[in-house]
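[Structure tokenization] protein backbone as discrete codes
[Encoding] learned vocabulary of local backbone shapes
[Protein] chain in single-letter code, fold in tokens
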Amino acid sequence: MFISLKSVVDSQEFKDVKILAGKDGLYRNITSISVNDLKTEFMSPETIETGDLFITSLHQYAGEENPEAADGYVQTLIDHNCSGLIVVTPDNLRFITGDIIRKCDEARFPLLYFSEAKKYSDIMKTVNKYIAIEIYNSSRIFRLQKVLSEKLSEEEILAILDSLESDIQTCISVIAFTGKAASEILKKEFEVNALTSSRDAFVDCNYIKYYIISARTPELLSRHMNSTKNKIKEYYNVSAMGISGVYEKRKFKKALVEAANANKIARATNVTEFYFPRVSSYNIIASTADTEEAKEYYESVLSILNEHTSPQHREEVIETVIAFVNNKGDFKLTAKSINQHENTVRYRLNRLRSWLDMEDDGIAFYETVSLIAKYSLFCN
């Protein structure tokens, strides 16, 4: 539950900071931030820990004539694997020698500098805010994963939903999206806005992000859905968005699972948005994919492919099957989507029909390949 120094440096509050050295170490995690205006000889090693970020004015060396007076101070922080040092005034910058710059670069120890005097309290408030957001979000991830992975009672699920947002309304839907924020600044702005908004909840599970929206009626929720999707796209370059059905909030787990599965389907079928359908074979497939029967069925078809193909050819056949189903059985569109000649597609599928002993039953063949294509999204 740490935040990287880069996340802070990229924030709006740090827009005026300069990186004097150690830019390759911005990945370092911050565990805490404090002021350290002590000379090296007065620093207690027991009070310095890995990940500490320190602020200094270097005023402790103001009376020193030796320009290398602060070398030992910086070296001590490097030796204790601190996350970085922020110098907040230009008055004593002469103590940041070329040797210190070299050492910081070699150790990938970030040395930051505000050219205009900045209050210690403002810097500490900013860093602690982002640490708090990270800790807060980590606890929310844990609760969300608990809903997804454990068998909980309806009361327990509602309690978790209430802990994510106490003002959740009657009707809910979940958006599960993947993609990168347009910038780190926009990402933090989105998170702060989402965490402070009422009736909705946002949980960033790193790769997949969940936005739980609510309203008093399905009609109001529909309008709210459109505005929320647009808002997400303002901040993120969305690669895939899975959207659940509309449910009473007691069905929170169902909505959450639907959104996650819809996102998975969107990514596999190369569409930006996928609404989990109310009536579709996906409903059965998504709910049974983890069963032994489903896995055995999927593996049985793969074993037939293994008997007749090499590993590379097997992947080509599976790719063709998935494209064929996604393109609703259209050979031309299938060929175009996988950059193959139409005859190649027909050859591969005809061979598969032969291996499955379905040469005289086109309906059974399409049912089978449709199931395999869809189960492949969940069984891999």
Observations:
- The chain has a mean pLDDT of 88.
- The longest strand covers residues 171-181.
- Residues 120-149 form the longest helix (30 residues).
